[in-house]
Amino acid sequence: MKIDIGAPYQTRIQQALADTDVRAAVEKATGRLAERREQAVGAIDNERMRVHARAAREEAIRNLPSLLEQLEHTLTENGSVVHWARNAAEANRIVLDIAQERGVESAVKSKSMTTEEIHLNKALEASGIDVVETDLGEYIIQLADEPPSHLVAPVIHKRAQDISDLFQQRLGMEPSLDAAVMCDTARAVLRQRFLTTDMGISGCNFAIAETGTICLITNEGNGRMVTSFPPIHVVIAGIEKIVATPEDALLLWQAASRNATGQDVSVYFSMSSGPRRSGHPDGPEEMHVVLVDNGRTSVLESGYGDALLCIRCGACQDVCPVYREIGGHAYGRTPYSGPIGSVLTPLMADDVGAARDLPFASSLCGSCRDACPVKIDLPRLLLELRSEITDLGSTTIAEEVAVRG
């Protein structure tokens, strides 16, 4: 059964609970990720890392205006063109203008939750630009015409059989459940696209204000090809992705790697500091950085600024008993599911009531708070949002009882 992400909240929950295949897939995958994470953080002084990681993120958010000004200056000095977008529509318009002015017909993308948030693919496709995801998980859900269901593992809800069936239908693959065969099938398609595309679009894990550097964490190498093969590289970055120094970025890279996938560090950590220099054979001819607000300033001003400390590792999802039962699509039309999504989604909507059900999709057990590498007190934020929603008069009796505890 496919969850109707546009259906009412209760309907989505019922659909998710009725799909035993998805529930089994999500439970197995999150359990495996949580186990790997425990091993990775257990091998170091994790509390010390958490304290330092939080301090780095707090400094960035506390000094956001001045660091953004510094970032614009250093990016420009490095030869990049900086664009500012107040909302999703502006961000999409900026990218579309860049593409149309240069006659771009095709683009490849690396994994980016911010581009999912602003629905960039749909905007480009509506204007006739062919966009292909190059992260394997994102490519699979693009073929399936589905949104991601996890911050790190977008295809966590699918079984091997589901992916095999999809590749047979869309790519002409011979029937096989061999992961290597499926990967090779996708790789053959994507490699050709890297060599022939006009534009590469990436997200941004960290933007270093001091040096004007865009950092990408990947395990497949696609991010490096997206940012270096095409003649034009466009970065889409939420304004909260900024960090002050390279040292902060390296610390957070380690924290993200251990908590997202249970690695000491990811396979790739790509750092882009502008377009190709004169005399250099590699890199894009142009680099554009689109800095996106889209509700982030409102979150900062609302008293929920701690939510912007998030480094998108997905650890809170992997340990959340609610997420592990219903998966990401039950949270609706949002790329941000699980505990952090239940905070960010209503805050970044036009009003809290627009996604009023999500703060109640939590047992408040505290596992998310204990797992978070930057020590975000998610249960507290969820409780405060519940209180605000109750004050709006848009809750059920059961929700009001839950708030009163």
TrEMBL record:
<dbReference type="InterPro" id="IPR009051">
    <property type="entry name" value="Helical_ferredxn"/>
</dbReference>
<keyword id="KW-0408">Iron</keyword>
<dbReference type="GO" id="GO:0006089">
    <property type="term" value="P:lactate metabolic process"/>
</dbReference>
<dbReference type="Pfam" id="PF02589">
    <property type="entry name" value="LUD_dom"/>
</dbReference>
<dbReference type="GO" id="GO:0051539">
    <property type="term" value="F:4 iron, 4 sulfur cluster binding"/>
</dbReference>
<dbReference type="InterPro" id="IPR017900">
    <property type="entry name" value="4Fe4S_Fe_S_CS"/>
</dbReference>
<dbReference type="InterPro" id="IPR017896">
    <property type="entry name" value="4Fe4S_Fe-S-bd"/>
</dbReference>
<dbReference type="InterPro" id="IPR024185">
    <property type="entry name" value="FTHF_cligase-like_sf"/>
</dbReference>
<keyword id="KW-0249">Electron transport</keyword>
<dbReference type="InterPro" id="IPR037171">
    <property type="entry name" value="NagB/RpiA_transferase-like"/>
</dbReference>
<keyword id="KW-0411">Iron-sulfur</keyword>
<protein>
    <recommendedName>
        <fullName>4Fe-4S ferredoxin-type domain-containing protein</fullName>
    </recommendedName>
</protein>
<keyword id="KW-0813">Transport</keyword>
<feature type="domain" description="4Fe-4S ferredoxin-type">
    <location>
        <begin position="301"/>
        <end position="331"/>
    </location>
</feature>
<keyword id="KW-0677">Repeat</keyword>
<dbReference type="InterPro" id="IPR003741">
    <property type="entry name" value="LUD_dom"/>
</dbReference>
<dbReference type="InterPro" id="IPR004452">
    <property type="entry name" value="LutB/LldF"/>
</dbReference>
<dbReference type="Pfam" id="PF13183">
    <property type="entry name" value="Fer4_8"/>
</dbReference>
<keyword id="KW-0479">Metal-binding</keyword>
<keyword id="KW-0004">4Fe-4S</keyword>
